[in-house]
Amino acid sequence: MTIYPDYTLLIQIINFLILVFILNKILYRPIRYILAKRDQEFNKLISLIDSIKRQVIEKQKSIEEGLIQARRLGSMERESLKEEATEYERKILKETYAVVEEKLVKAKEELERKIEQIQRDLQKEVILFSKELAERILGRRLNK
After folding, report:
1. Alpha-carbon radius of gyration of the chain
2. Across the chain, which distance is largest between two alpha carbons, in Å?
3. Cβ contact 135:142 at 8 Å
């Protein structure tokens, strides 16, 4: 059996072309549009992710620099406070030593006054005791 081309072949070719045109309009073009849109959205998301990653890295660097600077400032502040505390301690000790020295001088003066007073009192008593002792030894009363 041999096949001879006739007008039906032309109808089949036209039918095939119409079918391809209709399928292209109804099926292939919308699918390609959806795929292109999906690729576009995917690319946007990838660029957004890259942008966010860069921002995160920059923020991490900024935070690390901030921490380093905060530590440095904290250390400087701590040293400053230590110096202030040491200076305040010296001031208090100096004032305390001055007060103690003043009280010590007053106590010495008071002690010297009391010693002098006791010496005068003892001197009077020694004179009285020696007079009394002389009177007893001599057996008579002494005039002044």
Report:
1. 59
2. 192
3. yes
